[in-house]
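chain below, 588 aa
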Amino acid sequence: MCGIAGLAGGDALRHQTTVQTMGLSQHHRGPDGTMHAAASDGRAVLAMNTLLIVDPQAHPGPYLDRETGILLAFNGEIYNFRQQAAAWGIRVGERESDAHFLLRAWARLGPACLDGLDGMFALAVYDPRSGRLFLARDRLGEKPLYWRLDGGRLAFASEVTTLTGYGSAPLVLRPEIVAIETPVGVDTPFQGIQLLAPATLLTFDVATSSLDQQTWWRLEDRRPFEGDYAAALAKYSVVLAEQIPLRAPACDFALLLSGGLDSSVLAYLMRPPVCVTVRYRGQDRFDESKIAARIAKDIGAELVVVEPDHVDFTTVLRSMMSALDYPMGNASTFSEHMAYRKVSDLGLKVVIGGLGPDEFLMGYVRQALVVFGPDAVLDAGLEAYRPLAAKLMHTAGEPLDPAEAVTRLVLRGPDPEGRIRDLVADAMSRAGGDLARALTLADLATAWRPLVMTSDKLASAKALERRSPYLARELVELSYRLPAEHKITDPAQGKRILRDAAKALGLPREVWGNRDKLGFASPVPAWLNGPLAVWTDAQIHTALADAPPAWQALLENGLKPGGRFDRTRMQALMSAAWFSDQTVRAAA
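prediction:
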């Protein structure tokens, strides 16, 4: 995937070398060329790492519109750019890309063009006519973009460590990192550096150094779906069949095929030449490779099986943490990292994943626990989730308020100031009283950020473009609009409408009838208490010697063994590896 970086300010031209260095520090994101360019008025310098997907012969960015002087650095893919070019009367040559379209669309329409874009993107546009820098991110935050304001200059980059290299940024332990393993909102663990929120436009006026941020799309503004289930299934099936194939690149690509519902549907609709699955020897619960093999055979794809072990984990931990920029709470991190490494070794540039349906179609057990209650979920055969269900069991025996229930289920540590509780309550209040939509908004406010961030960062570290077809705008909005009964009627089976669509597509019963989601889970937590216990303790003890005082308790808690749903030890180990990486960077 591409990367962008840059600087805007009255003396930006004097800092071209700085911006060039910022771009080079992200070279892995775009190995087909890292270049930088200064605006005509000298008040902005933009850099871009280019990964060529659409046209291998295309010229690397940044891109300049000679008539207006507008300068663009772009990271992502606009899947509907040719359709929008025709609708807006914008010329796009046969050998030109979505970046050329976007540059001309911005010159003509300005920020108003954002609403017409369907894709994943982070972009920077400098317009010398107004002396303003614009930064924008896609609707669901698939592509990262960080920024900081120092001395009247605004700096930005695709990776937060690029901005820590631009200037000092002391580490900050956000309370949410302890509570749910990840910063929330726009916070990062680096003082003075923020993540631009999804679907947000930031405008920086160079003359006044003033900032303005606006949200340009809100999921909760979508109206509820009107129609019965038959109408909804017909509509959903059409949108699914139309939108998913549009995300398939013209070149060879790989699909992350877990054997579950989401990735299997992608396999049937996209027909990838290569499927990659991850399994662990002796871990039958995490092994869906037999189903993955059947799916691959049905579509005529090569199935590549990756079998990491605990030694592999010790070997890649530091490089994995370096790619992530900072610790994030995603249970599939190691499996994803190993899958991306294999895809890169195969010489491919694009990898497809099934992110999305769980959040928008009630696919998580925690959502079923809120809707049906713990007893109903356990009685439905999901006994393995008793430790999670126990969070909702209390002596009064009365149903919990949904916001309280969600908070209990997502918390993995203390929340003394109630920040996560307030965040969940605010998200759910925006759903207009519909519980299914409320749960989606709560997920987007808490657990979503590390999922999309790890997918982008781990793939980009291997010079891969990660695509998530279920995040197509029309599919996301339709899924959100559906009533709860279209998404879940069985405590053990969410994603009802996707299951029925999969059944109609001819997928095997083992896929659409499966009652327990696995995905790319891994036995890493068990390793840390088993064959890697001594090694893990040593890593944490080493980090304790150099870690800032605020982080000491988090690391010390990791010296205690944890259960299946307790990732405290994993979080402490990842933090220890991160501190080690920070020390190496500082020494360099």
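The domain at 221-308+331-360+448-511 is CATH 3.40.50.620 (Rossmann fold). Residues 52 and 308 are 30 Å apart (CA to CA).
thats it, cya
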